[in-house]
Every structure is written in structure tokens, then in C-alpha cells.
Design brief:
It is a single chain. This protein is α/β, with parallel strands linked by helices and about 280 residues long. It is built from eleven helices and eight strands. Helix 7 packs antiparallel against helix 11.
Amino acid sequence: NAEYMGDRNFSSLLMATLFLRQSKAYQAFRPTYPATVMEYINNFMHSTGGSTGLDLAVDLGTGNGQYAALELSPGYRRVIAQDVSKNQIAQAIPADNVTYIVGHAEDTGIESNSADLVTCAQAFHWFDKQRAYKEIHRILKPGATTAVFGYGNCFFPNAAGNEVVDTFYRNTLGPYWDSRRSLIDSHYRGLEPDDALFRIVKRSPEWELVLTKNMSLNSFVGYLSSWSAYTTYITEHSEASDPLVQVAAQLRETTWKEGEDVLVQVAWPIFLILAKK
């Protein structure tokens, strides 16, 4: 119900419910961020002055801990990774210096002025913007950085394959996306923090950062099955035929012509908001 979308507890419950059934698919098929994202963040941290410590990083809306365990863990002495979904945390990627906690991004319980970096990958659209940024500001050390980022819809090297995915995304699943999905479609425009909280705010230019992954047809269809709207569609149409069967057949004809196991490069544009306390 849209009238409850501004309520933190409702939106957090909705997020947890949508990802409950799909967490294994999420971990198996979602692409991982390239090292260039962390390099971009580090360049911002060092070029703008202030804190550049490597003691504590916090990852909000961590999901299965992909970014916390694979990208933050090697560079920081401690990492705290938070998510509202108990199911996602239960299946999170283990790392010796990562502590996983279940909770809300707007009220983490993390010590004030303690974090050298706060990240949020592909999750900020679920949060209450003002409350989340106030909480991030509270837990950051003076002069420390927050990075809020994600990736948009995927692209193939050929237009026909893109049309198949776009039709599935907008037409088949269109009514089943949560309204906050539009924030990803707009690459988080309008989700930048207020100048009153952060002294420097910057966005990465469009397509400067790109996520790529070479995928077989089965792995790509597995990625599509991790979409929350697909989970909602299947739940509401349990007796109907699976639309991914037709999508897979169309992609076999347009993009995987040389065989289902052939690896095709898929690309996602990355959008990144950086802010310094």
C-alpha cells in the first residue's frame, strides 16, 4: 500500500519479505562490483582532505555481505555490515573481520564518530533518506566519507537481446516492482544528501564506472530470477507458466546463438554518490 511507503518499519518489512525467497539466487547470480568503485572512493577520500583512516568501515543494507566481505574486508581492520533481513544475514559471506548485524539503517546502534567509511550498495532506495543520512553523519568520524551507489539495468552488445530484457522488465514485471525501483532507474538522482549535513557532495559521471560480467544463458536467467519483482510475480501467479521460460528462449535466439554455455558480456552502469562529513 503506497500510503505506508514513508514509514520506516513498513518499508523495512517489505524489503525483507521481497528478498526472503530469493537470497540464494541473489548470492549465486548477482554481479560483483569492480575494484574501480573502491578506487574511486579512495581517490575522493584522499583528494578532499579529512579522515582517511582504515580502522572501521560500515556497510548498510549489506544483503548477503557481498561488498562488505569482498571489497571492504581486505582494506579495513574492522567491518560492521547491517541488513534488515535475517535471512540475508544468515547466508552472508563470512570474513574474519566482518561483524554482521540485523537492524535498520536509520538506527544502527553503532558508536558515534567511529566509522572511517560508510557504504551502501544498491540499498539506499529502501531507506528513509533524511533519517538514514542523519544516522550516517552521526556514526562517521569528522572528515570521513560515505559512498552510496548501485547499478542500473543491464545491457548486451546487441539491441535484440536488450529489447527482450527491457520488455520483461517493463511490461511483464512492471506492475510488480516496488515503487522505489524508480529511484534505481533514475540512478539515485535526488537522493544526494543535504549540504547542511555534508560539506562536500559529488556524483560520478554517467558510464564512468561500469560493472561487467561474462555469463552463460543459464546464469543470466538465474540473475533475472533474483529480481524482487519476479519473486512477487511468481508468488501472485503460482499456477501460471513461468515467464522466464519464454525469456530464455528469446535470448537463445538473439544473444546466445552460438550455444547456451557460451559466455556473453553483460554490462551495468554504476552510479555513485560521495559525501564528506
